[in-house]
Amino acid sequence: MPRTSPAAAPARIAVIGGGAIGGYTAALARWAGLDVTLCVRSPLDGLSIESGGTIRPAAVRIVTDPALVGPVDWVLLTTKAQDTAGAEGWLRRLCGRDTAVAVLQNGIGLAERVAPLVPRGTRVLPTVVYISAERTAPGRILHHVASELHVPEGPLADRFAALLDGSELRVHRVPDFTTASWRKLFTNLAANPITALLQQRTGIFADPEMAALTRDLLREAAVVARAEGADIGEADISRTLELYATAPRDGGSSMLYDRLAGRPLEHEFITGAVVRAGERHGIATPLNKMLLTLLRAVDRELRGAKARELRGAKA
């Protein structure tokens, strides 16, 4: 009698980072039947997602020690951009000969940021993330809106889309990833710094003066984006303003959530990316540079407070 072929084992995914994006993507991948390991720094007693008023647990494997993991099919790197280097221990253990790494972070130059941290030859897929979610407690994620991942089209993008085909994460393959990256940066460029500095939710952008300031910030950045090769124009600025105007008034930004939780900020990879690119091209960015200066001051205070807290815990 002919043998019946056994069912293929589910793809093995490791998600590095237990924040809002990491927890949410890990849960959706697990619910789609994939074998998911969530790699975090501190122990969690579980993972659950609240969305649309419903709370649902996700039975993922949670690991805090890189020594306990081995090569997987895909790694999803979801740490904050400033924490990328700290993920090297995980990446070295999780990446085998056939492993691919999807980088789900803010900013531009994602593949270049991660390439030095993975074994030579590892394929890296930069990923633009459109997910509004908030970590309300360790292992507890509140999902607001959107579940989209944009990647540069090609064979690796096709594999990534096939991997997540049965999940609620929608993968879009785009031909011009430079433009896609800058368009995503635009969604963060005013919302993140302004909500974090003022410690207010996105309803603040309904104020006409704030909307005018936002337009000026984005116009300044658009000049830089075009110098970087992105097809960014007035339509993108208007689209971003419309996004802010229609966002839930009680929503926030990842930078606001970080400040409220006393965590370091991601300003160098959002506002800082515009300022540094402007400097490379000899383009003045006074508004974004002002925000960067203020954000650096806030971040210094946050880091100082954290250091004092750690010293007090050791005393």
H/E series, N to C?
Answer: EHEEEEEHEHEEHEHHHHHHH
Percent in strands? 15-25%
Taking all Cα atoms into account, the compactness measure Rg is: 20 Å
* Main β-sheet description: 10 strands, mixed
Q: State the helix count.
A: 11
Coarse morphology: globular
> What is the typical, i.e. mean, pLDDT?
94
Distance between the terminal alpha carbons, to the nearest Å? 72 Å
Low-confidence stretches: 1-5
Number of strands: 10
> What structural category do the secondary elements indicate?
alpha/beta
Helix % is 40-55%
Q: How would you describe the overall organization of this protein?
A:
The protein is built from eleven helices and ten strands. With 315 residues, it is α/β, with parallel strands linked by helices. Strands 1, 2, 3, 4, 5, 6, 7, 8, 9 and 10 form a ten-stranded mixed sheet that branches. It is globular.
Give a quick rundown of the structure.
With 315 residues, the chain is of the alpha/beta class. Helices cover 43% and strands 20% of the residues. Strands 1, 2, 3, 4, 5, 6, 7, 8, 9 and 10 form a 10-stranded mixed β-sheet that branches.
Provide keyphrases for this structure:
single chain, 315 residues, alpha/beta, 10-stranded mixed beta sheet, 20% strand, disordered N terminus
